[in-house]
Hints:
Elements: H1 2-10, H2 26-33, H3 39-51, E1 90-95, H4 97-100, H5 107-113, E2 119-123, H6 133-139, E3 144-147, E4 154-155, H7 156-162, E5 169-174, H8 177-185, E6 194-197, H9 219-230, H10 249-254, H11 266-276
Parallel strand pairs: 1-2, 1-5, 3-5, 3-6, 4-6
Amino acid sequence: MEPQEEARTARDPVARPPASSPSQTPHEEEHREGGTAPLGEEADGASADGLWQLPVERAERRPECSRCSRPQKVCLCPFLPLHPLHISTHLYVIQHPAEESKVLRTVPLLAACLPQDKCKVKIGRRFSEERDPELSDVCRRSGTLILYPGDEAANLEEFILDSPVYPSTIIIIDGTWSQAKDIFYKNSLFRLPKQVQLKTSISSQYVIRTQPTNRCLSTLECAAVALSILEKNNDIQELQHGAQIRLSKEYLLKNGLYPKPMPKNKRKLRKMELLMNSVKI
């Protein structure tokens, strides 16, 4: 492209005579028009070509557990059920693509605790009947619920008491609050099932990953609480761990224990202020 050529020429250390110079010989003109590079550029190109021949040391990934997808040195399997839980409810996890690569994600732990035919993970941001006929069919069933808080969401415990059809499937969105909001409101399929939420005072015990507020639960914990209600089995929501408890960002800010400097970005600083004042973000 012309702009790139101009930029490259502007940095050329070799002074080039103007095209109208009468001292330029035909031989020099031929070399110039033929694109012959100066000696300095030839040397630089040879040096660059030599770099490709150098051996590359690839970083070795730590061995991972095939069950919980955690590095073997910090495997969480000792704290998970030995065998998949016996449940009748089908669970669909809608996972934002950004969560798939996070080391501290909880969906692999959830999948390790449930039978394969009862837990399905769908990765993506946009879903439709054409793209995923199976999910479309699930969303249209009368026994399907979607777990997402809001003014229109019913309390899950109260809903199952009055529901004429007992729920057989529940959908959970896995991602940050902004990612989950984007998935929920920009996919019309997810407004077909009955919207429910959890009314619980449980604080997050997933201590590996700090939660924004005391009210936030990991995807694993949300699924465990919801399944314990639907299966009428309180043992499901008991999550054991072997790590030291980490306090939420909300608690650290309120008590002057937040270890990092406050952000300079106005939007991020505003979020911090809302957390300190217990305002729902």
